[in-house]
C-alpha cells in the first residue's frame, strides 16, 4: 500500500494549497483522456483517492493517525467512481474561479442537492391506520 503523501509528492506537513496544487498537476498528467499509457488510469485513481483523503481535515487526521485503516469505508473502500466525468469536467472543476476559465460553476452534476431529513412521531389510532385519514403537519 502506497503512502498518500508520496502519491501526491508532498510532505506530511503540506498545507491544503500545496496538496491541491500537487493533485491538479498530477491529475492533468495522468487523466485517462490525456494519458493513454498503460497504468495511467490506475495512477489517476490513486491520485484521486489520495486527494480525497488528504483534502478533508477530518479524514486526513484519521489517515495520519491510523493509516489506511482509519479511512477505509467498509465494502466500498477503493477508489471513487468518476462515472461519465470527462476531461472537460475535471478541467472545469480544477480551474473554476481562476479569472474566467471554467466559469460554469452554477451548473451542478447530478441534480439538486438533497436537504436534511425531517423526522416526526405521528400518533394514529387503529381506525386511522387501517382506513386512512388526513392530518395537518406544520414545519
From TrEMBL:
SUPFAM superfamilies, sorted: Chaperone J-domain (SSF46565)
Residue ranges annotated for the J domain, each copy included: 3-67
GO CC annotations on file: cytoplasm
Keyword terms of this UniProt record: Chaperone, DNA replication, Stress response
MF annotations from Gene Ontology: unfolded protein binding
InterPro entries the record matches: DnaJ_domain, J_dom_sf
Single Gene Ontology BP annotation: protein refolding
Transmembrane regions listed in the UniProt entry: none
Family matches, as Gene3D superfamilies: DnaJ domain
PANTHER family referenced in this protein's UniProt entry, alphabetically: CHAPERONE PROTEIN DNAJ A6, CHLOROPLASTIC (PTHR43096:SF10), DNAJ HOMOLOG 1, MITOCHONDRIAL-RELATED (PTHR43096)
Record-given protein name: DnaJ domain-containing protein
UniProt organism field: Symploca sp. SIO1C4
Lineage: Bacteria, Bacillati, Cyanobacteriota, Cyanophyceae, Coleofasciculales
